[in-house]
Amino acid sequence: MTESVLPAPNVHHRPLSKRLRELGFDPSLLATVGVMIVFGLVMVYSASWDVSWRLEGEPDALFRRQLNNLFIGLAAMIVAAQMPLRWLRKLAMPIIGGAILALLLVLVLSVGAGPRRSFLAGSIQPSELAKLALILYLAVWMESKGDKLLEWGYGFIPLMAIIGIVGGLILLQPDLSAVLTVAIVALTLFYLAGARLSQSLMVTGGGAVIAYVLVRLTTTGRARWEDYIAGMIDIKEASYHVQHSLQALYAGGILGRGLGASREKFGLLPAPHTDSIYAVTGEELGLIGALAVLGLFVFLLWRGFRIALDSKDRLGYLIAAGITFWIGVEALINMSVLLGLLPFAGNALPFFSYGGSSLVTTLAAVGFLLNISRRKPLEPDSLRGRLATVDISRRNRRGSVSRLGRRRRPRQDD
């Protein structure tokens, strides 16, 4: 009688999604980011070669720089994906301190009468780094406060001070759009952390008043607001930038002129490789290409908020929600501005716009999302008898936002 031997399972025939999930990271998020990186590189090359030729004398000079930015960003993403999140409780203060120091240095070291926003001829923009630093710091700070966050002296007033310091330094550059982005993301985090309805309404109303005052008192803000109102009444009165972005999108039609065939990027559309890259995408790839970009961001937001809701702890929840909301706000503002739906703002389109600070910071943020999404594989037997509960009650008059509850401790007889 011969003993039958079962063949060993062939791991190479397992689905790719299952193999990726065994690495512990969200495979859908990883695949989406990969597609957006490749798509963004293609559009950067197409949108930048004319500008690159005029500025550098080489058609691919800016593209090669973006490749270097990508390698740095991927390294930052890997580090963020592998870093134990508990380290952030000790690193949060140095991170936000370094961001504030960089914002101060860019004001002190910059020369000339123009905007003071970057180091090394525009290669490093501290305001981009400060956005992620503020999210990480606020997530750690709000987690440490617990229920004390609901008290005005422990939560509301210190939050306003933090936003005031970071936002005030960015405003001095000046970069009004970055200030508004920082404020929106910070106040949303405050609400997600459990702020009372009265606090949320007061913060929202106060923020709206401050934003209106900044827009009306600053020359740039007032000009952009007036152009926006005029463009809403008559599109012919909109700003030069918005008019040419709309012309590019209209010329693209359904299928587009073809990759590389944009006409507006030849000196007509301002910043075709940075702020206006979405308009170039619409002109070359048409409505289908523009909707594809929009669809990628929608899917990314869905995965990001799903990761936040599935997070193991409150810190991961706040970081994931804050990062996802921030990326969504940046993308929404960039696309809406080019469509004439919002006043002009200089927000980059994440993963697509040329620029080292934006790409590196966004990829580092994605690394934290992957970190939070990581799950250790569980043996089948270890799944038996496990229960997890999520507390979505409205304790202490908190808003009806999904909250992270505490897992039930196993009893002795489990």
The residue fraction in helices comes out at 55-70%
How many helices? The count is 13
How many distinct domains? 1
Count of β-strands: 0
By helix and strand content, what is the structural category? mainly alpha
Order of helices and strands: HHHHHHHHHHHHH
Strand content: under 5%
Query: First CA to last CA: what distance?
Result: 44 Å
What does the average pLDDT come to?
Answer: 81
Low-confidence regions: 1-9, 376-414
Please outline the major beta sheet: none
Radius of gyration: 24 Å
Q: What global shape is seen?
A: globular
Task: Explain this structure.
This protein has 414 residues and is mostly helical. The relative contact order is 0.14. The protein has one domain. The model is unreliable at 1-9 and 376-414 (pLDDT under 50). The chain has helices at residues 16-22, 27-56, 61-82, 88-109, 126-145, 152-171, 176-192, 197-217, 219-233, 240-252, 277-309, 314-338, 356-373. Helix 7 (176-192) packs antiparallel against helix 12 (314-338). The protein is built from 13 helices and no strands.
What is the secondary structure topology, with strand pairs?
Blueprint: H1 16-22, H2 27-56, H3 61-82, H4 88-109, H5 126-145, H6 152-171, H7 176-192, H8 197-217, H9 219-233, H10 240-252, H11 277-309, H12 314-338, H13 356-373
Helix pairs in contact: 2-3, 2-11, 3-13, 4-5, 4-6, 5-6, 5-7, 5-12, 5-13, 6-7, 7-8, 7-12, 8-9, 10-11, 11-12, 12-13
